[in-house]
Amino acid sequence: MMILDMFNLKGKVAVVTGANTGLGQGMAVALGQAGAKVVGVARRSCEDTKKKIEEFGGEFTEVIADLSTTEPVQRILDEALAAYGRVDILVNNAGLIKRIDAIEYDEESWDQVVSVNQKVVFFLSQAFAKQYVKQGQGGKIINVASMLSYQGGIRVPAYTASKSAILGLTRALANEWAKYNINVNGIAPGYMATNNTAQLRNDEDRSEEILGRIPAGRWGTPEDMQGTVVWLASAASDYVNGFTIAVDGGWLAR
Ligand code: NAP
């Protein structure tokens, strides 16, 4: 196969959580452009994402689910299979951040953040891995990590704990599942202009401090995730296992 053909996702089905906005939307569109049929999972409508994918003739279906608990896990898989008959790619993108001083951080906020960012990611990955094994053709799992998989951060202890866990979970699952031709890898976005960082970008001091530390000299965008997610979703990365790649404009290199 010629190298650029290895990036082609024609015939594949990709499921992206949190596909209604931000990085999830950017990645869903990219996977669609690469030829995959896309299932977007979100707690509210993915109308905008659907429109962007249908504009270039791609196929998109949404599954409405709240990922605060494991309750919808099996239904997400079932609805994806009902729509397109198989699954090949799972992007665990949905996540939330709560900015509260560690000294005041409450248990409910902790549980919410860790459940969506960490616990449900594991059980959704497990459900998909079982299906990949059943299909017998391997599959891809791509977890969205963070700079706070490597660093401590400020006022976000639950987020840092959960995103650091994602780095380890990506390795742990890759170890166990590489033998089934399942690749589990991560993408660690740097500081990207989405809802997740709206609060930071609105704080002039913090915003300036962050921007001054990014070698690329700008905040990232959902488009910046697109090349890496297509590569990790494709046959071009079949021997990449358990690694988390920073897409951060050089932040970690500082
Ligand atoms: P975002 O615009 O806030 O998107 C987060 C997505 O997760 C949204 O689709 C959101 O849905 C969804 N989500 C949150 N809680 C959910 C729940 N209980 N059930 C279902 N969906 C839920 O921010 P983003 O930057 O695109 O974030 C995407 C991922 O990248 C997250 O895992 C985030 O931690 C990670 N990340 C972002 C940055 C950054 O700088 N932006 C950096 C590193 C990592 P709603 O729209 O309904 O809230």
Automatic annotation (TrEMBL):
Its EC number is 1.1.1.127. It is an enzyme of class 1 (oxidoreductase). Keywords: NAD, Oxidoreductase. It holds the Pfam family adh_short_C2. SUPFAM superfamilies: NAD(P)-binding Rossmann-fold domains. It comes from the Bacteria. Belongs to the short-chain dehydrogenases/reductases (SDR) family. InterPro entries: 2-deoxy-D-gluc_3_DH, NAD(P)-bd_dom_sf, Sc_DH/Rdtase_CS, SDR_fam. GO terms for molecular function: 2-dehydro-3-deoxy-D-gluconate 5-dehydrogenase activity; 2-deoxy-D-gluconate 3-dehydrogenase activity; NAD binding. It catalyses: 2-dehydro-3-deoxy-D-gluconate + NAD(+) = 3-deoxy-D-glycero-2,5-hexodiulosonate + NADH + H(+). This is 2-dehydro-3-deoxy-D-gluconate 5-dehydrogenase.
